[in-house]
Amino acid sequence: MSAPACVLTIAGSDSGGGAGIQADLKTFMAHGCYGASVITALTAQNTQGVTGIHAPDADFVALELRTVLEDIPFRAAKTGMLFSAEIARAVAEGLEDRDFPLVVDPVCVSQSGHRLLREDAVEAIVRHILPQADLLTPNRPEAELLAGMPIEDEQTLFAAMAKLLSMGPKAVLIKGGHMEQSGGQLTDWLGLPGREPLALPVPHVDTPHTHGTGCTLSAAITAGLGKGLPLEEAVRAAQRYLNRALASGFPVGKGASPPNHMAGLFGG
């Protein structure tokens, strides 16, 4: 048996198990990858919301990252919640010499509305993280925040995508979960420099089990890239995986539960 691809998540911990590091590692395993982690923050969190955040100092985050990079031959990595400017800069510096693709999920606000970044982190992410991204995966509010403009229709979405691409990422995927659905479908839009935006429609799943969907999608893309898939193929495969996970979600707590990360496995 050949060794699985090793992939890395650099993100915050969700004590409720539905998003962040926990969602990423479950998704990596569901794709047959070996997952490692660099924890940028601890959250006291459940399906109903976030009650507190505690972050290690940036030097320790840098030590976590340096330690795993010195030992494990990663094939791809992703970033999620980067709590502060200092942490964002430490992560960017630690990834400068990498030889594998990087997916950046610019986690800013939890689904329950709790802000997950300090004010100074956004500018640091734009300056230091976005230029290193092989793929940036914002939802609509995150794209609006990073681009500094509202997204109201396809025209403004394309303008925001062009602005985001000008900040340095090699590709941008603006997710359609916060957009209006049409004909029972939602559309994610993939943008690459010099190409027309590509519409990637997916069936809408009517479910309350949506906590951590952004983490799950970006982790699935990371796993696909780690296994050698081309970018567009990795995105499409991740869309299919998330759709199955949403369709087979189950209640965990009293609030918004996560999708079923083991969808299609072990009878799920």
Q: What is the element layout, followed by pairings?
A:
Elements: E1 6-14, H1 20-30, E2 34-46, E3 49-54, H2 58-69, E4 74-79, H3 85-95, E5 102-104, H4 119-129, E6 135-136, H5 140-147, H6 154-166, E7 172-174, E8 185-191, E9 198-203, H7 213-226, H8 231-247
Parallel strand pairs: 1-2, 1-4, 4-5, 5-6
Antiparallel strand pairs: 2-3, 7-8, 8-9
Word description of this protein:
- By secondary structure, this protein is of the alpha/beta class.
- Helices cover 36% and strands 21% of the residues.
- The strands form 2 sheets. A 6-stranded mixed beta sheet has the order 3-2-1-4-5-6. Strands 7-8-9 form a 3-stranded antiparallel beta sheet.
- Strand 8 (185-191) and strand 9 form a beta hairpin.
- Helix 1 (20-30) crosses helix 7, helix 5 (140-147) crosses helix 6 (154-166) and helix 7 packs across helix 8.
- The two termini are 25 Å apart.
- The model has no long low-confidence stretch (mean pLDDT 92).
In round numbers, the mean pLDDT is: 92
Please provide the ordered H/E string of secondary-structure elements. EHEEHEHEHEHHEEEHH
Estimate percent helicity: 25-40%
Tell me the major beta sheet.
6 strands, mixed
Overall form: globular
Low-confidence stretches: none
Number of strands: 9
Radius of gyration: 17 Å
Output the structural class: alpha/beta
Number of helices: 8
Give the spatial strand order of the biggest sheet. 3-2-1-4-5-6
Give the N-to-C terminal Cα separation. 25 Å
Q: What is the percentage of strand-forming residues?
A: 15-25%
